[in-house]
Structures are given as C-alpha cells and as structure tokens.
Design goal:
With 255 residues, the protein is an alpha+beta fold. The chain contains 8 helices and 14 strands. Helix content is 26%, strand content 26%. Strand 6 and strand 7 form a beta hairpin.
C-alpha cells in the first residue's frame, strides 16, 4: 500500500500543465493526499475530480477562493472520512481531510505558514498544538499516520542554509520545538528514520530564485507514523523527479 503526499500549489495548474497524468503514472499511489489545492470541487475538471479507481474527498477554504485546500484520493474505500478538527478557527481554511482505514487513521494536512506577521505565526503555533492533541485523541482508537506540508524544517540537515534561516519562519526555534514534541509523543518521521544521515534531501524549493536547479531547498513535507505502526512501514521516498509545483511528492510504502 503506497501512500503519497504532495503540495501541488494549485491543483488546476498541475492538471492544465500536464503534470497530473505524469504524477499518477510515475508514482503509482494507492492513496494520496494533496495540499494547497487552491480549488473547491466544483472548480475542478472532471478527469481530476473523478480520477479512475479513486474516491476523492476535499476540504476547501470557506474564507476565500483560490486559497489553501486539501484533497484525499483513495483506491481503498475508507471506513470514515473527517473534514477538519471540529474547530472553526482552523477548519474554515480547509486544512485537513482524514480517512479511517481498518488498521490506522490517515490525516492529510496543510499546516499554516508562519509568514505575513506575528498573528499568522501565532495562528500556526496554535494549530500545531491543537493538531497534536487531535492526533492523540484519534490514536486512542487506532494508530495514526499524518502527512502533508508541515511548513517547518526540523533539523539543520533538513534545509540547505540553516544558519541564514535561523530567524526565518519555517526554521524558528518555537516551530522546531513543536516537531520535537511530536517525536517525543511517539510519532516517527519516516523518511529520517530510514535515512538518518542523508543530506540534500529536500521537498520544497523557492521558485523565484530558481532554487530547485541548484537544490537549495527545505524538507518540510513529511510522513509521520505513530510508533506502534512503524514495523509495517517498508520504505520512504522523496520523488524529486516529479515537477509541477514548488514542492515534490513524498511517499511511504506499507507492507
């Protein structure tokens, strides 16, 4: 079972520019979560909305069009689907869609960006805290996997220029401390588990500076699994050969 996560930075653009089919044929997911879809279902073309073999579930921003949004596509019919955490402050931005399967919960999340001022950084940190509490509540039922654009690099190995970004949102001490909390609560960063010392493994590159061509990037897209499920994870990959966004897909394979 291959689970994939991708911040598409505009789902309609990915489709329009020819990357949708390439992604599906190359990565071959069984379940995939998309972030920053920037579209509600009625705005999507039929071949994206009704991708053969997949059921699709969307949570879109109710505050403004073309902003945020997540989608979850699954070949396996979920037992249950949830949209948000039940907290309007966060859910109105369309940041979480989750599915319950027989052995685990899968949460696909587009975490807030901490830029554009202190208010948004505070919002991001509140979201982080509420999300971890939400995970822990679900985990009482069964193991949890969460994936998506976390918008924070955890350690210095996870970005090309840590010193220069030490006071930049996405690598602030208080943002990184939350990822420490996640790990201490018993969630495993699957890619780093399998690749503890791998450098220059990034998932996001700034478009304006053509950073991808130079691989000056950040690893801010993750799969975390609660530790009791780790034994079932066989592989973790970064699909840096897939284009169409300023992020690339990441995946894990369960056996």
């Amino acid at each position: 079972m291959k689970l994939v996560s991708w911040n598409v930075n505009g789902l309609r653009a990915v489709h329009r520019n020819g990357y949708w089919e390439t992604f599906l044929k190359t990565v071959k997911p069984d379940v995939f979560g998309l972030q920053e879809t920037k579209a509600s279902p009625e705005q999507l073309p039929d071949e994206v909305l009704n991708t053969g073999g997949f059921s699709a579930f969307f949570s879109s921003s109710q505050l403004k069009k073309g902003y945020s949004g997540v989608g979850l596509y699954s070949k396996i019919e979920p037992l249950n689907v949830i949209y948000g955490m039940g907290l309007p402050e966060f859910d109105l931005e369309g940041r979480l869609v989750g599915a319950e399967y027989s052995d685990f919960w899968l949460l696909n999340v587009y975490f807030p960006n901490g830029g554009r001022g202190q208010d948004r950084l505070d919002f991001k940190l509140r979201y982080y805290d509420e999300f971890l509490a939400f995970c822990e509540k679900l985990r009482k039922q069964k193991p949890v996997i969460f994936c998506g654009d976390v918008n924070t690099a955890h350690e210095e190995i996870d970005l090309a220029r840590p010193a220069e970004n030490s006071k930049t949102t996405g690598f602030l001490p208080e943002e990184r401390a939350w990822l420490d909390e996640v790990v201490n609560a018993g969630y495993v960063d699957v890619f780093r588990h399998f690749n503890p010392n791998r450098k220059e493994a990034y998932t996001y590159w700034d478009t304006f500076t053509h950073a991808r061509e130079r691989n000056v990037g950040w690893r801010i897209d993750y799969f975390f699994v609660s530790s009791e499920l780790l034994r079932k994870v066989k592989k973790a990959e970064i699909h840096s050969d897939i284009f169409g966004s300023d992020h690339c897909p990441v995946s894990i394979t369960l056996g």
